[in-house]
């Protein structure tokens, strides 16, 4: 990877390894969400493929075929995905913002993220354990788009 690539190149100029390294692995994009009536609602309910303990997809290579609602982030669609968390590195770089000090590329690990409670492993529940009628009790964020 090129030195401090996130400061020197746009999303579209990153190679595949740099693109993947930019992800902080928080797991927030793997939470169940709904976009309805110009409002995003995020639930503390994990996608069926999310390894909650490690905040990583358990089948990353086949996620798009196994989970129809999964989205592949690309430089072209990051600007349209208004459901990405404000802390998302892809979103931040697209906006010309710097990475936060806790980002693994700067901090060297996800330890700071864990201490700050940024990983979903601290609160997410498996989708199969949350009945649809209980979803309202699991709302963790809501915003207008």
Question: Key terms for this structure?
Answer:
alpha+beta, 4-stranded mixed beta sheet, two-stranded antiparallel ribbon, 18% strand
What report would you give on this structure?
The structure is a single chain. The protein is an alpha+beta fold. It has one domain. Helix content is 21%, strand content 18%. The protein has six helices and six strands; from the N terminus they run H-H-E-E-E-E-H-H-H-H-E-E. The strands form two sheets. Strands 1, 2, 5 and 6 form a four-stranded mixed beta sheet that branches. The protein has a two-stranded antiparallel sheet with strand order 3-4.
Total of DSSP H or I helical runs spanning 4+ residues = 6
Order of helices and strands: HHEEEEHHHHEE
How far from one another are the termini?
35 Å
Shape: globular
> What's the β-strand tally?
6
Number of domains: 1
In helices, the fraction of residues equals 10-25%
- Structural class of the secondary structure composition? alpha+beta
Mean pLDDT: 94
| Percent of residues in β-strands | 15-25%
């Amino acid at each position: 990877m090129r030195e401090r690539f996130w400061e020197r190149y746009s999303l579209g100029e990153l190679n595949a390894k740099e693109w993947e390294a930019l992800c902080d692995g928080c797991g927030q994009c793997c939470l169940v969400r709904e976009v309805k009536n110009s409002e995003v609602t995020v639930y503390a309910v994990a996608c069926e493929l999310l390894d909650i303990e490690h905040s990583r997809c358990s089948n990353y290579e086949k996620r798009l075929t196994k989970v129809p609602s999964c989205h592949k982030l690309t430089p072209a669609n990051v600007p349209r995905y208004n459901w990405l968390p404000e802390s998302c590195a892809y979103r931040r770089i697209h906006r010309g913002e710097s990475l936060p000090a806790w980002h693994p590329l700067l901090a060297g690990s996800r330890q700071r993220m864990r201490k700050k409670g940024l990983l979903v492993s601290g609160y997410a529940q498996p989708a199969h354990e949350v009945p649809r009628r209980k979803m309202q009790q699991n709302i963790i964020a809501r915003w207008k788009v």
